[in-house]
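Example record used in the benchmark description.
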Amino acid sequence: EAYSHFQKFSSAYWMLGKIIICVTAFSNIISFIIYGSGKLHVDIWLPFSLKNPFVHLTVMSWRIWMSSNLVLVHYGYDLNLDSIITILAMEFDILRNELKEVLNNCETKMENLKPVIVQHNVLIDLSSRLQKIYSPLFLYNFVESSFVMCLSAFEIITTDKVSRPVFIVTLMTVSIQIL
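Model output (structure tokens):
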């Protein structure tokens, strides 16, 4: 059950990542075709003109590359955390089955329970260590996602209609990630 959850999560998250990369790439291309010049989604100052198609293509490719890397980093982090939690849940399921087996045996002795108790203590210790490691990362991820949500909402309000899908997808993705 835990493994099927992990497979569903990783497949859905990977699909979401591909959608984000495609929306970012295609919206840049559509924007270039519509405006015919180097207009980016966000008004920023650059030390060179984007009217040259080669320069615009280079900047656009760089933005797509950076967005893709950001999506993949978040994907890797979340997938790593979900795999650790899945393994831990499977270990607790195995321990539960062993405990049932020991308790269903009419001749249960304390020596049969000791390995189960030791394994339970090891899993509890591992859980508390993981909580100490990942708690600051959860806080950082929440704060960063909240900041990105605010910026995306601002960009949705201030950008043109062609650029809005990028920020809408970003806002939805970050909202899903926080949940």
